[in-house]
Amino acid sequence: MEQRPLRRHLNADVVSRTRLTFKEHQSQSGLCSICVMDGVCEVGLKAKTGRPVFPQPFGTAQFGAEKRLPNLEDIQILPELFGEGVEFTEVETEVEIGGFKCRAPVTVAAMGSTRVAANLAEELSIGAARAGIPIVVGENVFSTYGKEGLEKRIRAFLDHYDGYGGILVQGNANEMRAGILEIAESLGAMGIEIKLGQGAKQGLGGEIKFSDPKEAEKYRKMGYTVRETGDGNFERHSDPGTLTPESLEKVLLSAGETGLPIWVKTGMGTGIRKLIDLLEEAKRNYGLKISCLTVDGFGGGTGMSPWVVMNETSVPSAALFSSELKPGFDVLLAGGYADGADVAKALMLGASGVALGRPMLIAANAKNYPDGKELGPGEGIANFVSAVSEELKMICASQRVRKVSDLKSRRENLYPLTEEAARLFGLRPEIR
To answer: Which 3 state secondary structure label does DSSP give 228?
Structure first.
């Protein structure tokens, strides 16, 4: 098996459809140690196009950063030896997140207008409803598919809603100027999510590629940046948004006029503690229904941003809890979480739950049971959440707790496997 060096993004990757001429011989820069300048690597692709390298195939696949950072795999869960025995089958997984009853501490993370998510839009909504968890309709859905496309996603959830979960609509800077929050409320959305910046890819994101000049004009009128790519196509880029205490207060007050629960989504970066303080201040001063903050981080995303940015910016969102933090609203972590152990570790660090994106797309795309029997609408997601819930129950049994909610902030039972992980997540490498 080829050994990939740690901490370094290579100059060629299957994601960018590039390669090295001598892949077994790489210099520290990622270039071949013996370079014959044949232009098949990422440097060569940039020379041919004059553009940063984007993940491919654009819009029809998902992508995740490859650079190796300390993450939840570098943490082990220590079982609790003393205490009353707990049968995992009896563990309670129901929680409340952001004002909604949930059958498990997970949500379907906001996914926007790219085809890879749009093609499964109704399946995602139905699956969330059947699983009894919240789902956020992501940015640019209204801009791209109009009021009808937004209503289709909301209606699919509401038609299967049984009292658990909820459907929220996200608005970025462009769409909030177009009245997305009020439109979402009129269509039956149960909550709203304000997107500050572009999640883990601050300053970037919301990219799609298309060829219709009329579509380009539509986006320009809505304030998007639209660029011609030189091959007859166009690129759309979302407004990165301005964030100051004054602009945040203004948008929160506007959101408060809907009367719906307010969620906020941002990235993991410098200033995150200040943002939490400002949200708590606004909630306290104006009585706003700020009920949840989703913090996106390194390692996830459906991936419509330059490959170098995906690999070289942000850190895992769980680093938010590197020191004690108890905000007056729920906190969801996002970015590279995939199973019950990931969710358990996030809870034990101090989170209220985890927002899953790519795993939910995989589950929504599942067609059949192992025996070939066809899955019904939303069953893939419902089955996946059920499996994650059972994994959580087993970890609860190892901790001798009877409720998943009791896993929260059990940091003393998390053991870092490396010094870097200990520093990043604020853990002590000791066994009591």
So the answer is: strand
Per-residue DSSP letter, 351: -
- Quick: pLDDT tens for 45-88: 999 988 888 888 877 788 888 888 999 999 999 999 999 999 99
- What distance in Å separates the CA atoms of residue 421 and residue 322, rounded to the nearest whole number? 10
User: Ramachandran region of residue 30, left (φ > 0), alpha (ψ -120 to 50) or beta?
Assistant: left
Domain boundaries, the chain: 1-53, 72-206+241-425
| 340 closest CA partner among 300, 299, 396 | 396
Q: Give the H or E element holding residue 221.
A: helix 213-221
Domain 72-206+241-425 classification at class level: alpha beta
**Which token pair is 94?**
């129901």
Could you report how far apart the first and last alpha carbons of the chain are, in Å? 39
Please give the average per-residue pLDDT across 199-205, as a whole number.
Answer: 68
Strands 75-77 and 414-416: antiparallel
CA dist 62 and 34 (Å) reads 33
Instruction: Please give the model's pTM, rounded to 2 decimal places.
Output: 0.92
Helix 340-349 vs helix 379-399: crossing angle, to nearest 10: 50
Q: Write the pLDDT tens digit of every residue in 158-182.
A: 999 999 999 999 998 888 888 999 9
Please tell me the distance from the alpha carbon of residue 80 to that of residue 237, in angstroms, as a whole number: 49
Closest CA to 171 of 116, 81, 125, 110: 110
The answer to whether 77 touches 332, Cβ cutoff 8 Å, is no
DSSP for 265-288 reads: EEESSTTHHHHHHHHHHHHHHH--
Task: Give the integer Cα–Cα distance in Å for 106 and 254.
Answer: 28
- Please classify residue 9 by burial: count the beta carbons closer than 10 Å to its beta carbon, then call 0-12 exposed, 13-18 middle and 19+ buried: middle
Query: What is the C-alpha to C-alpha distance for residues 120 and 19, in angstroms, rounded to an integer?
Result: 32
Angle, CA 155 vertex, CA 152 and CA 160 arms, to 5°: 135
Cβ–Cβ < 8 Å for 235, 207: yes
